[in-house]
Structure prediction request, 482 residues.
Amino acid sequence: MPIRRFYKLYLSPNRKYVKSLKNLLGFVPGNLSLYRLAFRHKSVAQNIKKGVKNSNERLEFLGDAVLGSVVAEVLFKQYPYEDEGFLTELRSKIVNRVNLNQLARKLGFEQLIQYDTKMVNSTRQSSLLGDAFEALVGAIYLDKGYDFTRNFLVNHIIKSHIDIHKLEQTETNFKSKLIEWCQRHGKDITFELIGNQEGESNKLFTVQAIIEGEIMGSGKEFNKKNAEKLAAEKACEALSI
Amino acid sequence: MPIRRFYKLYLSPNRKYVKSLKNLLGFVPGNLSLYRLAFRHKSVAQNIKKGVKNSNERLEFLGDAVLGSVVAEVLFKQYPYEDEGFLTELRSKIVNRVNLNQLARKLGFEQLIQYDTKMVNSTRQSSLLGDAFEALVGAIYLDKGYDFTRNFLVNHIIKSHIDIHKLEQTETNFKSKLIEWCQRHGKDITFELIGNQEGESNKLFTVQAIIEGEIMGSGKEFNKKNAEKLAAEKACEALSI
Prediction:
């Protein structure tokens, strides 16, 4: 064991924190302040300069991008005969907030995240886990580089905790999700096919998802079914369903 | 000069293609088939298996992710005191289709892209350039790895061709862009404030951008101006303006 590593794990004043990170991540972190930042929710952050807080939000921005790139490569290689639509959809199933929240909870992030319980309600608390996961990816990237982060994500996260094949099977059916929601809330929903716009290809279908007379989502695709699907997806997004 | 490199540039049957890529990219490519694929638009692609074509679309998916990650890091480091909202907005100004199209045109992609002029109209043709740029990033990533791709993008693309500081200053005014486009095409445009939905906060404004009676974009924000802005942005996106 190299001396630095030994010092960090057994002698340094931060040894307890280093050990808990090592248990979580499977490796000894280098720059501890990055990891502390990744686990610091904005509710406990301080202003460091002109309104910018030392919260994990900037790291979340970076980590989200790195995670997206790693997952893109994994899927690109794992599914050589699927098109980019399939890859995009499957990636969003993997990196969506609900999935990342569950993952972070399973990994035991709750003990590591610093946040103000008074300022964070229970809904936000759960998305706070997924946000911290992305921030952690950003921290690892800055600390150890892309290839390390990629190997960490592939070997410690994706292989052990994400069942890509299962996610592939579970189709997120936005149309039935939307219709169900409308039924539950006693709202009227229709899908309307809209005429083509000037200059548009005849083969293009535009469908609007209309709830209580208000257009909540619109989709343009080369077949009607997909246009409906897209309109439903956008409406779900607009309504945060 | 290593023998392989010498062979590729001066002796191989592909030496002409290798040279044109070297002129464009500044390095000698490894796996040529990846680069050929990056420049192959779907209009000239063949089916390789159950409906999947050997076009650049899968590489575009991968390259989009890698590019997003590299630009995220560049901005993260260049703007240490800006929040994630600023970083997200600036990144989208850099990697948006219009900007990537211009970039690809400037780099001379037009000579390299293979596409069927009969099947591609002029509007699509221009987004074809930006798409190919992203696909090229995917090809370089698979050929040379992340760090190489990152250095290539930073040193050959971002430093030489992208004025981040200027983009930071230019606010993309989607509303005036949309109105301008409507005037040019003789289309009627209105922005309509929609009543709140049941259960929604009173402070929330929903604005729809309506062109020729059709809702082309909708925005929900805590002030009317921002809701209009968002509606205009979505309409611009829907119309590929």
